[in-house]
Amino acid sequence: MFHIRYRPLRLITRKSLSSMCLKLMFSRHVAFSQMWKSWFSSHSPVGNKNIILMGPPGAGKTTVGRIVGQKLDCPVIDVDDDVLETTWNMSVSEKLQDVGNEQFLEEEGKALLKFSASGSVISLTGSNPMHSAAMRHMKKTGIVVYLDVPIPVILSRLKSVKVDRIVGQSPGVSLKDILLFRKQFYKRWHDIRVLCGGDIAAEVVAEKVLDAVKRYQNSELETFISTRSSVAGRSMETDSCKYFSDVVTEGLAPDGGLFVPKRGLPKLTAGEWQSLIESTYIERAQVILERCIHPADIPASKLAEIIGAAYGENFACSKIAPVRHLAGNQFLLELFHGPTASFKDFALQMMPHIFAYCIPRSCNYLVLVATSGDTGSAVLDGFSRLHDADKQRIAVMNFFPEDGVSPIQKSQMIGYQKENAWSVGVKSDFDFCQTAIKQIFTNSDYTGFLTVEYGTALAAANSINWARLLPQIIYHASAYLDLVHQGIVPFGSPVDVCIPTGNFGNILAALYAKIMGIPIRKCICASNENSVLTDFIRTGVYDLRGRKLIPTFSPAVDILKSSNLERYLHLIANEDGQLVRQLYNQLENQGHFQLQKDLLEKLQQDLVAGWCSEGDCLAAIHSVYSTTGYILDTHTAVAKVVADRLQDRTCPVIISSTAHYSKFAPAILRALRIAEIKQNPLSQLHLLSSYSPLPPVHCGLLETLKKTGSEDHQVCAADMSMLMSRIETLIQNHFM
Predict the structure, then answer these.
(1) 125, 312, 509, 573: most buried by Cβ count inside 10 Å?
(2) Could you tell me which residues carry N6-(pyridoxal phosphate)lysine (predicted)?
């Protein structure tokens, strides 16, 4: 027997967690097949659970089920042969011809409702998932494994055999249409998914099924640690055993480090990636996130709801993140089709729903965020889309540099304020805002006071939160798959990516996609005149001494302290948290650190870097528009300039277009030499939209600015005690 356990993460004690870790340590010495057989044989039949194989016709459920049953030495049941035909005393095809499609589904469902088994491997029919009552009945008896086979592969398999037992077959209805229609039901019922691309052998699929069920049962393996945890502390310290739900809720590790998966990210095989080439963006997102989030934290069906809420209707382009050819071997990954017109929407349309699902119901949460421009409006919009009940227990406070964002960005942040979301301008720069939030999180006296006095906990929505990074991996992977689908590259051929980078989150997501199996050769880090990252990548020296932040046309990368760089250093340092802690203590106390030679060599295998001046940024916008009619925003222009200088043109380069040009209207108007720049943000957009040769401005952005009339926002001095006072006031006003 295997044990299905829905783990209430927040109720696990440190004592029980330590016990689980010890059990895990012991279990590593047990052979997998022996462990499974003991589970099936050492319990009474009453408690036994089933492995239930689900998938389309031609997925190989029957064959795979027999192999799995042999490996586990347990009964194997094929619903077609052992349940339906036995019940009806006729073949399935005869029954289908006799009663027709709709009645067949009803008769099939009734037969399954009367069926019971335990400790078995059960192969469902392709149409069983279309009967809700029957599937609810089956799901109670075990774990449902979805054999996800690409439709072209299924069509190829069925082409060579006579198919007369598929529900829905009729003149004028293609088999492809039937398979596409059924996908929604497989998505609804599966607990775990096994990707079965290409000509994969049934024996291999069976092993993948066992591996997937093993993963499902061993949620203790998928824990998170701090980038600053010691080598000894990583193995068994109770505090190091954090689950996905914990890190989403807590945001920042107690020692000031960032959470990372203890066992690293999952790696998909080439065949598994290739099975996603024909998939939609939402389908790719589902597969990738199922691999990265354990179902004990978020079940697959709930994850599908969250992904649907994030990307289903909120993006102006149906492709979500389309890839467009720019010129030569350069391609643009358009990441600005979300509601607030920047790449931050990809994470922040999803993260609030993940957060609301993971947090305990017994506590209120105030989400703090620091922004250099785009994050603020994306956070405010994302959390404002939660259900009313969630908005009553989750509020957001957004800190931004009062004079360090574009006028349109500021108007957005003011306009997106809602009953549970507020913006506060700080008389300083982004680095102060981000550092202040980190200090607040690590101030246990203050956070403890908020919890005891107001029943409110703090959480983070910056990319220091792991749930912010995961959705960004998807679009880097999807962009490569789109190039393969378009015939630009065969799968396996490398590409470079060029990303305008300030806080290192977006480029880190690309590096994570590479780790997961996407053939990215080099990640090109593009800086503006705040070139601390470029200098570091070139020299290994991270030096903030004497540096002052320079306001530029690309404010989202006007950053000197790059938070997510810490995660990457932890990765290339072989998870040496002690070294990472030492480096960041030195940065905090002395304003600089230097990588040792071997780590710098590792870093430079992944990364190259360059920076772009303000003049070159504007010139690139003008040049690209003159030659192609396309308008780059200022951040994408920075990346374009750096890509032109650094790419060797031996492979395609995907440039991340991180924002819509209309967010930075003054710079665009200046670059295109259109007219005198007006100060009112709405006037700037109207001027852009009235110039007919230009592509249209972002409609969502225009609508937001039209609504932004007399709305106001709070302004605060760069003082920690004042920020903390504002937080307390907000909590009193919203939750009390």
Answers:
(1) 509
(2) 344
* Residue for token pair 């069509």: 155
Residues 691-696, mean pLDDT to the nearest whole number:
68
Question: What is the DSSP code string of 422-459?
Answer: EEEEESS-HHHHHHHHHHHHT-HHHHHHHHHHHSEEEE
User: In this predicted model, what pLDDT tens digit does every residue of 270-284 receive, in sequence order?
Assistant: 999 999 999 999 999
Kindly tell me the sign of the dihedral angle through the C-alpha atoms of 695, 699, 701, 707.
positive
Looking at residue 27, what is its pLDDT?
Answer: 36
pTM > 0.85: yes or no: yes
Q: At what angle do helices 444-454 and 430-441 cross, to 10 degrees?
A: 70
Task: Say if residues 231 and 576 touch (Cβ distance below 8 Å).
Answer: yes
pLDDT in tens, 574-591: 999 999 999 999 999 999
Whether the CB-CB separation of 309 and 353 falls below 8 Å is answered with yes
Beta bridge partners of 458: 366
| Rounded CA separation 565/553 (Å) | 23
- Per the listing, tokens 């096994």 go with 194
- Could you give the domains of the chain? 50-217 (3.40.50.300)
Helix (H) or strand (E) holding 400: strand 394-401
Distance of CA 342 to the CA centre of its chain: 16
Distance between CA 588 and CA 93 in Å, rounded?
Answer: 72
